[in-house]
Amino acid sequence: MPKVQVTPVYEDWMNRKWRPFAAYTYMVTCIFDFIVAPILWSIAQAITNGGAIASQWNPLTLQGAGLYHIAMGAVLGISAWTRGQEKIAAITTNTTTQQEPEEEQMK
């Protein structure tokens, strides 16, 4: 069995966690723009117009030809592909990285 070389790499938490944070931000934005805001918009119109809904919600992220979704898709797609390439390179060279211990373990 080949030896696995462990190299300690202590990165800042932002360098390790930016990919999930970007994905969560995009998910929250989409949930708000496509689910929460249309419901609140309809409720607000029903209250102020005596039960009549005069106009439907126009998603903010689709204005400007949906450039926000194209940009986020590019950022998340390329970052996922890059992370996959990093993992493949680590496997092919038989090296692993040891990440910084979590806060609970440091106490």
What does this structure look like?
This protein has 107 residues and is mainly alpha-helical. The protein has one domain. It is built from three helices and two strands. It has helices spanning 13-48, 67-92, 103-106, and strands at 5-8, 95-98. A two-stranded parallel ribbon has the order 1-2. α1 runs antiparallel to α2 (67-92). The longest helix has 36 residues, at 13-48.
Secondary structure tally, helices? 3
Low-confidence runs: none
Instruction: Estimate what percentage of residues fall within beta strands.
Output: 5-15%
Helices and strands, in N-to-C order? EHHEH
The helix content is 55-70%
Provide mean pLDDT, rounded: 84
Major sheet: arrangement of strands: 1-2
- Overall SS class: mainly alpha
Q: In angstroms, what separates the terminal alpha carbons? A: 36 Å
| Largest sheet: number of strands, sense, barrel closure | 2 strands, parallel
Total E-strand runs: 2
Q: How would you describe the oligomerization state of the chains in this entry?
A: single chain
Rg on CA atoms, Å: 22 Å
Q: In a few lines, what is going on in this structure?
A:
The chain is mainly α. It contains three helices and two strands. The protein has helices spanning 13-48, 67-92, 103-106; strands at residues 5-8, 95-98.
